[in-house]
Design goal:
Length: 334
């Protein structure tokens, strides 16, 4: 496996990040342990979770898995803070109070003494960035956090944070993660160039458009039983299977057949090959899905493939209107 530099940190990470959102929710503990063990055995050394995934359940499962296999020191472990964790008025946001309390709680759930990458899950327009940066800087200085990163920030918000870090002589954010896939290429407008300009790692989430680009789903409102969205009734989430997304998935079928690959592998390989992308975050629900995802690492798309894909999903476009409405009022500002 060819490892990649994580921005300017000097840390080498696997070209695929194991996203842990399903663990503790759709995936039980035994399956979680099997998936993590298999991923590490195949060379994956980056695990990404968040405190709000399953209201702490994902972190607990990840911590238990790493305790069982004794591989905590073999992985670059990332989690996030910002989302509401209880009904208490201060159990949300990017204040010093919530960040420090959130870090302590995550450390306990993850059964570790440090977090390799602690990320702000969302920007918070009500809290000054220097307040947040000072708290993150203190956590790095204490050794409880190795690096700080952002998630779902707008380009201008990231640059503002870098300016504040330099002015106040604080540890800066080293990475950003936002959605990027063939159904949502908006990150190409500003976000990817911004990360390249400032030597930030970019680890895109939802490289398969929340399943829309796996080839498993149809244009119907009711998806097949046994799939992640088989019993889904939320109209917003069902937008993931809009005609625009399905058109792209259908267009990938001939390319997949040419390479004896799956549609998901083509979509994932495309994201991994884009300039400025460090490593996409794949969030498998089952071991079979992980094995399929890993197959994308050995898939080399041709120039003709890239040109056909650009025809299906032109650069900078957004066919997945689900993302447009999901994160207001802090919408992506690409």
């Amino acid at each position: 496996m060819e490892y990649k530099l994580f921005g300017r940190t000097g840390v080498y990470i696997s070209p695929l990040v194991l996203g842990c959102m399903m663990f503790g929710q759709k995936t039980d503990l035994d399956d979680t342990c099997n998936i993590i063990d298999y991923a590490i055995g195949e060379g994956i050394n980056f695990l990404d979770t968040a405190d709000v995934y399953g209201n702490g359940a994902s972190e607990k499962f990840v911590g238990e898995a790493l305790q069982r296999n004794g591989k905590r020191d073999k992985v670059f472990l990332a989690t996030k803070v910002n989302g509401r964790m209880s009904d208490e008025p201060n159990a949300i946001g990017t204040s010093r109070l919530h960040i420090v309390e959130g870090c302590e709680a995550s450390l306990k759930r993850l059964k570790t003494d440090h977090i390799d990458l602690y990320q702000l899950h969302r920007p918070n327009p009500h809290i000054a960035i220097d307040e947040t940066l000072r708290a993150m800087d203190d956590l790095v200085s204490s050794g409880k956090v190795r690096y700080a990163g952002t998630s779902n920030f707008g380009s201008w918000q990231v640059v503002e944070s870098l300016w504040a870090s330099e002015k106040l002589n604080l540890n800066r954010f080293v990475s950003e993660q936002s959605p990027f896939n063939l159904a949502d290429r908006r990150a190409e407008r500003e976000h990817l160039p911004m990360c390249q300009t400032y030597s930030m790692a970019f680890i895109p989430w939802s490289p398969l458009a929340a399943g829309g680009l796996t080839g498993k789903y149809t244009r119907t409102a009711q998806q097949a039983s046994g799939t992640r969205f088989g019993d889904e009734t939320d109209p917003g989430k069902l937008k993931r299977f809009s005609d625009g997304v399905m058109d792209i998935a259908d267009g990938l079928v001939p390319i997949a057949k040419t390479h004896n690959a799956t549609v998901a592998q083509v979509a994932l390989a495309w994201v991994a090959a884009q300039p400025g992308v460090t490593a996409p975050i794949a969030g498998p629900r089952t071991l079979e899905q992980l094995i399929d995802n890993l197959g994308a690492l050995n898939l080399e798309l041709t120039q003709d493939d890239f040109e056909e894909i650009d025809r299906l999903a032109p650069p900078g476009t957004n066919a997945a209107d689900y993302y447009e409405a999901s994160f207001k009022p802090n919408a992506h500002r690409f």
